[in-house]
Each structure stands twice: as structure tokens, then as C-alpha cells.
Amino acid sequence: MIEFRDVHASYDEDIKVLDGVSFQIPDGEFVAFVGTNGAGKSTTMRLMNGLLKPDAGQVLLDGVPTTELKTSQIARRVGFLFQNPDSQICCSTVREELLFGFKALGEEGPDAEAAVDGVIREFGFDADADPFLLNRGTRQLLALASIVVLAPPVVILDEPTTGLDFRECMKVMGIIRRLNEVGATIVMVCHDMEVVADFARRVIVMSAGAVVDDGPTFDVLRNPHALGRASLIPPQVVDISLALPLMDERLVESPVALANTLDEMQAAVSEEAGR
Ligand SMILES: Nc1ncnc2c1ncn2[C@@H]1O[C@H](COP(=O)(O)OP(=O)(O)OP(=O)(O)O)[C@@H](O)[C@H]1O
Ligand SMILES: [Mg+2]
Asked: What's the pLDDT tens digit per position in 56-108?
């Protein structure tokens, strides 16, 4: 369980970045954090893996404040995919890269080697390839694989699909979904509302360092007020579902009336965003 209790955080003392954030994420959840640029999503992720400590309030992992945990204890529990995967690639071959996490944790040995071989097979990597020469999508997969291989109970992903084409995006998200199906807690920052709608079971909306909505994915994505405050456009599937109850009446009128229903909904979101 991850718990934020009235967390305040900043980088410079006078500029508050998080202003009283509270939530609980039980084991096994699949949560997406959404919100505008600068809302504090990445900061929230950094607090979750102990890279940043709160100015006030508490961040607890399984009931223990991160301030009382060693970096290595957090690293064993929480795998972290950074917003830019290149920042976590450092070795000269794919195999070394996948072994790196075990080395950092002092866990080298036959079990580590077997886990690395398994992941190389599963992802279809060339073990001897130079990570820096791989294309963007494959580098992202390698960064993800270097977390998967350690099998941490919690996986945090900061924008795992940004910059990927549709096929790469589906491959990465398929792997993330499988991790969740075998028990990992997934916490993901994502700007793509279609991906959020397809994969996350719960959504937390952030705006200006605060949580403005938190609930089951479909409920949150149907709330134009919270989405508007975070300048988010709901995914098509939500547009359609909101229009469905009105479809019968309006279809009889005309397809133009149905299109107007969708426009009205977009207008409600835009109006809220403009406030
Ligand atoms: N290392 C840092 N030093 C100082 N200020 C920072 C630092 N990182 C982030 N900030 C500031 O903190 C605020 C929140 O940033 P954060 O990266 O958490 O937002 P975000 O929601 O992840 O945005 P994005 O969608 O652009 O990734 C922003 O105003 C940002 O400028
Ligand atoms: Mg960010």
C-alpha cells in the first residue's frame, strides 16, 4: 500500500509544488495520474520512490514513512521508469543493462542471470546490442525490461508511451498490463486519455499541485468539471457513452442533433478549462 497523507513538497523553499496531497493506493491497483504540464505528477512519483522527501505530511510504503527507509529498501519495492528512459540507460550491452539493477542491489548470481536470460527471450532483445544504438521504442522497452527483470511489487511509470508509435505503445502497455495481472501495483503518469481509458482502473487528476478528482476510470473521465480544470479532453469512448442515453431521442431527430450532443460535451469541458 502506498499512502500520501497531506503531503506538501517543493524544490525551492518559496515555490510550493504539492499543496496537501492525500490518497491511498492498495496493492494490485492500476492507477493513472493525469493533469496539465507542471501539475505535480512527476513530483508525486519522485516522492513515491523516495527520490524526494516531503516538506510536510507523510509518504508511506506499506505503513513505513519513506524518510525511515533506505534507498536500497525502496528500490527493492518500487521500480521506476523515468519520463526520459535514456536517463536510466548506462551500460554498453543490453545484457549488462538488464544485470545492472541486480548489481546495484548486490544480488548478482545464477538467479539474476536466469532472470535476465528470461527477459531477453520474452522481449526478443539482442543481448549484445549497444543500448544507445537502439531506436526510441526499443530503448523504452529496454528501460521497462530493466524494471520487469527485478520483479518489484510496485512499478511507477512516468509517461511510458510518450514518443512511441501505436504499435510500440500497445507493446509497452501490454507488458505493463501483464505485470499488473501477475500482481504488481501499477502507478502511471499518462497524457494519452485513450491509453488511460483502455488500461487504468482508477484515475487521479492533478491540477496546480493538488488532487482535483480521484475515482474509477470511467467515472473520472465522465466528469467534465475535473477534466476541464486539468485541461484534459475525454477519450472518444467516453464521448460516445455520454451521448448514448440521448441517442435514441436525437437519432430520430437527425444525425446533426447527435453531433451537437458531442459538441455540447466538449464545450462543457472547454468552458471549465477556461475558468
Ligand atoms: N528539479 C526541479 N527543480 C525545480 N523545480 C522543479 C523541478 N522539477 C519540477 N519543478 C517544478 O515543479 C512543478 C511541478 O513539476 P512536475 O514535473 O511535477 O509536473 P508534471 O505534472 O510532471 O508536468 P509534466 O506533465 O510537464 O511532466 C513545475 O512548476 C516545475 O517547473
Ligand atoms: Mg512530469
From this structure: 999 999 999 999 999 889 989 999 998 887 888 889 999 999 999 999 999 99
CA distances (Å), origin 211, targets 4, 22, 137: 11, 8, 31
Please check whether residues 186 and 206 belong to one and the same domain: yes
Shared domain for 249 and 221, answered yes or no, is no
Number of domains in the chain: 2
Do 211 and 267 have their domain in common? no
Q: What is the CATH number of the domain that holds 196?
A: 3.40.50.300
For residues 169 and 270, state if they share a domain: no
Q: How far is the CA of 178 from the centre of ligand 1 (A)?
A: 30
Segments forming the whole domain that contains residue 271: 235-275
> Residue with the nearest Cα to atom 29 of ligand 1?
38
Residue closest by Cα to atom 1 of ligand 1? 11
Cα of 244 vs centre of ligand 1, distance in Å, is 38
Q: Whose CA is nearest to atom 5 of ligand 1?
A: 11
DSSP reduced 3-state for 158: strand
Q: What value does the CA radius of gyration of the chain take, rounded to a whole number of Å?
A: 21
Instruction: Choose the residue to mutate in 8, 13, 34, 41 for probing ligand 1, maximizing ligand atoms within 8 Å of C-beta.
Output: 41
DSSP secondary structure of 42-71: HHHHHHHTTSS--SEEEEEETTEEGGGS-H
